[in-house]
Amino acid sequence: MKEIELPLELEEMKEYLEEELGDGIQEIDTEEIKKGLKNTPMKLIWLKVDRDDFRNAVKSISKLQIPHLSVTSGSDRGDVIELIYHFSVNYGFPGDEISVNLKVHLPKDDPTIPTITDLVPGAITTEREKQEFLGVEVVDIPDSRRLWLDEVFPEDKYPWRWDDKGMEDQSRYVHDKEEAANPPTAANKRRGEDDE
Amino acid sequence: MSKKDTTYEVPIGPIHPALKEPFMIKFRLDGETIVDADPHPGMNHRGIEFMGMHRNPLKVIPLSERICGICSIVHQHMYTSAVEHAAGIEPTNRARYIRTIMMELERIHSHVLWAGVAAHEIGFDTHLHFTWKIREKVMDLLEDISGNRVNYSMWTVGGVRRDIPPKMYRRDFSPKMYPKIQNTLEYYEKLYDKLEDIFLGDPSIRLRTRNIGILTEKEALELCGVGPTVRASGVKKDVRIDQPYAAYGDLDLDYVIPSRFGYENTGDVFSKTLVRLKEILQSIDLIRQCVKQMPDEDIDSEPKKAALLNKLKKADGEGIGRIEAPRGEALHYVRLKEGLEELDNWKVRASTYNNLATYAPMFLGEQIADIPIIAACIDPCIGCMDRAEIVEINTGEKNSYSHEDLHKLSVRKTKDMLGDEL
User: Fold this and answer.
1) Could you report the predicted ipTM of this complex, rounded to two decimals?
2) Domains by residue range for chain B, with CATH
């Protein structure tokens, strides 16, 4: 393998990822935002890969530097659960850092994703969080206990889901027996579907 | 089992060993030595992200600044810049400078406060009172600028809500009066030598902080640690330099790591203290640069808030706000969806979240009496990290050490160590 010299420019980084992952890439986008009087750029890459190529993508990022994973953000997007791993490369080089936002879509009937704690040991906190908040199953996670939610919180409810596994509306309908029996979900209330 | 297991478990918290915030760490001890540390956060989970996903983007700004009591600016800034990124709004340059000045003032306030807490944990209450007294000066300045001591309510999408008046920073504007910002900076500069003498020169503090709570460079990198916690181990990670935000791209600054000042990058509590103290000097320098370069223009690029709300409702996209908080890198992710008034998604990640994993290697092999200072050395901010409704807290552990017990142990250790010297 040829040695890669850091720091990589934004375009070089894109080419590197395209070369490493090939057809595994579903979408790739670069973004540069200029800031301040000197127009200092903030560089970002948005990358979407299939679940099968996900670990390869993390491996190719970790070939450059010990990867820095800021956090994994996740959300319920209707049919799929979207996870975004916010990595950054080129840290330690003034002004050259690139945020690599790695997106993976997981189908709702099989929301599993392989763990990356063997590649990035610091990912354990965020993987445990995704399990309890989104109902994602992280395969081979070394520690699957709950981290934030209390023991009394129901097992099959996930706060960030907008479907029937999500939270019920928090307000109480004590005066209305019918509504008390079938409380509207938080998602329905949020999107105003109750009114119709 | 051939060998008998001689270890036992000591839960510390949720009523706290080193902080006044609810958090629990379960320690496995062999005699006096810690063999395993397992943090249990979540005692303070308030579901802030969930609440944010049910409000419009402007109503989330005051919510975001209430995530943390010390670094309220940090969360406001990350949230507003993530929304700006998602909607393609540019703040004005003057707003960027005012934001930078406020963030650096907050860094001074946070680091001085931390120094006091650290001194208290090892039994130096005089230092606690000294540092907290000098911290008042920067709090007063923040109050003069924003009108508030803690939650400053300065940020809005597109800029800031209050200007810094020229009489506070320009000498030509009020020749008779001494500008308040320079005045405060000079106050800290004069006191800095004393502060360094207390925390780095004092032999008894050195005894308690040297070679304790060590985090190696490799561990720091692998565990994705952030901020002064990893810079003390020699890791060059600082978002202000790596990926400049606000006005940091215009300023001249360098990584604060111990080897720059002739110390070794050991990653112990002493190095972490050193890094935080040197960052106070760096902040003073940065504010001076900002005051010199600050352009005269509007402070808000979107002054009409009703129009802005409409624009945000039509916006479709995702954005990231990533900054170097006093405790290290932190990040907000926001997604806006066309036609939806509320945020489609909001993720908050504070610095302590990532530094949680660094606890295990730091505690390993240390003694019970060192627990408070090591727990304090990452400057943990549980409010930020937990972001989440207290359902029930079981505090009836009979074998748990209360904060007072631990504090007594820690003070006794300092006295024992000094006994050899006196």
Assistant:
1) 0.88
2) 8-44+365-421 (no CATH), 53-354 (1.10.645.10)
